[in-house]
Amino acid sequence: MPSTDTAINKTAVYWHFAGMLPTVRGLDRAQIKAIGQEASNACTENPLHMITKPVFSIPSYSMEKLTGPSVIALMIACVWVLCGEDENIAAAMLSDWSDIPMYAKLANS
């Protein structure tokens, strides 16, 4: 069973994902790739899951600083949209983030 901290962070990531997805859906592939690359760079330099204060800058997405969980959510949203929101294509990601399709539907409402 995951620790409470992990579960809380995963829930935060899902909610950030649902909030960011409509914006990411409206971008072209080049913009999404640029955002994904910036988010990935933040990921390789920091333990995102541990940083809950807004300190990350992803200028291709927003001038607003993001928290670690929101950067994770942004990376997931980018991958999800680049996979055409197809569960079969995104299967590897969904093995760890199984509620993404449900939160994607939530983002539609």
Compact overview of the structure:
The protein has 109 residues and is mainly α. The protein has one domain (4-103). The protein has 5 helices and 2 strands.
The Rg value, from CA coordinates, equals 13 Å
Our estimate of the beta-strand percent is 5-15%
Q: What count of structural domains?
A: 1
Tell me the major beta sheet: 2 strands, antiparallel
Question: What class, by secondary structure content?
Answer: mainly alpha
Give the N-to-C terminal Cα separation.
Answer: 31 Å
The helix content is 55-70%
Strand order of the largest sheet: 1-2
Secondary-structure element order, N to C = HHEEHHH
Described by the principal axes of the CA atoms, the overall outline is globular
- The residue ranges in which pLDDT falls below 50 over 5 or more consecutive positions are none
Overall mean confidence score, pLDDT: 89
Tally the helices: what do you get? 5
The total strand number stands at 2
What can you see in these coordinates?
- The model has no long low-confidence stretch (mean pLDDT 89).
- Strands 1-2 form a two-stranded antiparallel ribbon.
- It has one domain (4-103).
- The N and C termini lie far apart (31 Å).
- The protein has helices at 4-25, 29-45, 68-82, 91-94, 100-108; strands at residues 56-58, 62-66.
- It is globular and about 30 Å long.
- Strand 1 (56-58) and strand 2 (62-66) form a beta hairpin.
- The protein has 5 helices and 2 strands, in the order ααββααα.
